[in-house]
Amino acid sequence: MNPITTHDSLLAICLHAAYSNGEQSDAERQEIARYAEEMDADNLAALSRRILMGKLSVEEACKGLCTNQDRMLAYEMARAVCEVGGSISPEEGEFLTELRRRLTLSEGESSAVDEEVDSAVLAPLGATLPEAVTTDSGGMILKYAILAGALELLPQTLATVVIIPMQMKMVYRIGKSHGVELDRSNIKDFLATAGIGLGSQMVEGFARKLVGRFGRKLGGKTVGKVADQLTGSVVSFTSTYAIGHMAQGYYAGGRNLTAPDLKKLIGPLQSQARELHTQYLPEIQERAKTLDTAAILSLVRGGTPV
Q: What is the pTM of this model?
């Protein structure tokens, strides 16, 4: 068997992180398989099968990481996947401990990563709500969608990490505007009802970033960074827009929509969002120019995309 590449090592570690919580593995596996098919990502699907069959261990996955920078990146991605819902289960904690050992990271190096990921994922949901939020939720949702699309145009891994926390913050604000006080557990339940897996969504975001970083072959041509960043921008804009409007319908209607009701909304909302992305692409690109690491953390801590 050929030696594992850096690209596949990073993907494999993301997958191990997604599967490290046994209670979520079935749902995560299905979501990742769906994404791999949509992306035509044969390596992602193959890596997933090898991990689930016990043929690709964490130790083996780490062998393609030759530089400390790549090992730090692998740990950052794994930590973000494990913590995306706002907490780390005992099983995930054990996985991260093993991963740190396999990556030979010092306590200082891993602590620095933990602090950065925690600052993004665990930022308070609550924020001062502008008056416009209660009267123009549609406009607020569009601003979050534009921000998510802009984050995908950035090379920083942290930009990928904060998209889901920003979406959760958006849902919190929508619920608040309808008199419903939400916490992370409530929002996770809503997203699960709508058929959205947080861990698998994070893996998807990292996979798109890695495609942009390493390139891949499609139709005999290498797909470059710009093309894949634009694809990622469409995906995150679309998912944010759809989540926002599903949340708007759900909380405005007294939380009476069932899982089938919510899932029926996804297709039409995604189609509408893809058209809007084309319309708002210049604004998305301009928004990306204003964002750096400090601005990204400020946004997720402050809670407003304006």
A: 0.85
